Amino acid sequence: MEPRIQYARASDGVNIAYWALGEGPALVHLPLIYSHVRLEWEIPQIRDWYERLAANRTLVRFDQRGVGLSDGTIPAAPLDLVERDIDAVTSRLRIERFALLGFAHSVPPAIAYAVAHPDRVSHLLLWHGYASAAEWLLSPQVRAVRAMIGTDWETISETIAATLFGWSEGEPARRFATLIRESTTPEAHREIVQMLNQYDVSGLLPQVRVPTIVMHRREARVPVLSVARDLAARIPDSRFVLLEGSQPAPYLGDAGAVLDAIEEFLGGATKGASAPATPFRTVLFTDVVGHTEMMRRLGDAPGREVLREHERITREVLKANGGTEVKTMGDGFMASFGSVVKGVECAIALQRAFDERNRGVGASHLDGRPDQSTTRDTLRSSGSNDAPGDSPLRASVAGATPVEPLHIRVALNAGEPIEDEGPDGRSDLFGSTVILAARIAAQADGGEILASNVVRELCSGKPFLFSDRGEHVMKGFDEAVRVYEINWHP
Fold it and tell me: What is the pLDDT of residue 246?
């Protein structure tokens, strides 16, 4: 059933056209730059998209000022005025708290609003988004369309419909091109492009404090995939969901998979026959260097005391950096992160924590041998005449943790691991993403952090120092893998 179109008056007197559909928790679906709250309902794919989104909640849609059925002109300060439009509509509906869905050009305003109003936004959903105009222009298709500005308006609208939003042929494609022409004018369209050129919320990304999901289709070209991955990497604790397909519009192609990801994120019941989306994760492996030799040298009981200290330090650092412990392998850990940046920060924090611990016991080598002067002093204080190496208890005082350095190797990879229940009933991760992380860990020395090229690319623009360690042939992988070392020293 098509909802009734109403108007809400913004604080500056501009009338904003909107509708609301369904019942339950609110989801505010921000408009595209090209939007028309009435004509959208004449396109079956968009109509079905809205009706399915509204199945478990109150769905709210409006036309941004100067576009579609809303009054006003194209704003010179777009992010501020979109905020006024959101407030006008939600106040009219008496909605205090809501989830916010940004789609392509409405992603920057969604991010800005969530940062300014974390008390009002319960969840932030970003589809095919970007943070700055420069990132949107990385797509060759976008640059080609921009070059057409000023030519025939009908041709431009049809090209935008086909290239930027995936409408390739048929009556729905013609209707969407008509919607673009009805939502704005050629003159206003040039103003819209100038407005989009001002978009840049890069500095706000670290300030996002609400649960966030970034969704993108693997083969879509608008924007390019690396932009979406970078967006997810720069938003703290965000969830990245990579879906199959090439259509840039969520209601085209496998819309069911997009709806499933949204329902799962918002906590609703999943409806539809599509398989659930695989979450993008950063996988971290740690391993104690020289574990076997240490156990042989110290003996079982003292060696186990050292490993307990290793476990305590690792778990404390994981907790402090938002990591999830997947499992422990005796002398190492496997953990996962929803954010690549968090994973790298945790890896650095781990090496610094063990470095601080080792300096406290006088450790100075990476081969697992304790500092000899420290050991001798400890033995003298305990009344022993044994020289270092004569006794498995040489590095411990009775009842104390052995004075033994702990050096770990750390590795990071990012991708879409398979999540399943392990033998112990706990959630475990499997697949090539996990295997490659383990293979990279095997290449590291004590005190090192190694990472895949995926991790390095997703940390673009972050203050991490990567150095190229060259390509390595990994068991089980057909092609050589390029590995990078992350500098963790202050």
Answer: 84
What H or E segment, with its residue span, contains residue 458?
helix 453-458
To 10 degrees, what angle do helices 340-360 and 225-234 make? 50
Q: Where do you find CATH 3.30.70.1230 in the chain?
A: 281-487
Q: Of the candidates 469, 447, 428, 437, which has an alpha carbon nearest to the alpha carbon of residue 343?
A: 437
In which residue ranges of the chain is CATH 3.40.50.1820 found? Answer: 6-277
Instruction: Report pLDDT digits (tens) over 58-84.
Output: 999 999 898 899 998 876 656 777 888
Q: Which of 46, 39, 43 is nearest to 17 (CA)?
A: 39
Judge: domain 6-277, CATH 3.40.1280.10: no
Find, among 42, 46, 39, 37, the residue nearest to 65 by Cα. Answer: 37
pTM: 0.58
Lowest model confidence (mean pLDDT) among 158-172, 248-262, 269-283, 462-476: 269-283
Query: 346-386 pLDDT, tens per residue?
Result: 999 999 999 998 887 754 444 444 443 333 333 333 333 33
What's the rounded Cα separation, in Å, for the pair 463 and 302? 40
Instruction: Evaluate whether 287 touches 332 at the Cβ level (below 8 Å).
Output: yes
Task: Please say whether the structural domain 281-487 has been given the CATH code 3.30.70.1230.
Answer: yes
pLDDT value for 413 = 94
Residue at 7: amino acid letter: Y
**DSSP 8-state symbol, 460:** T
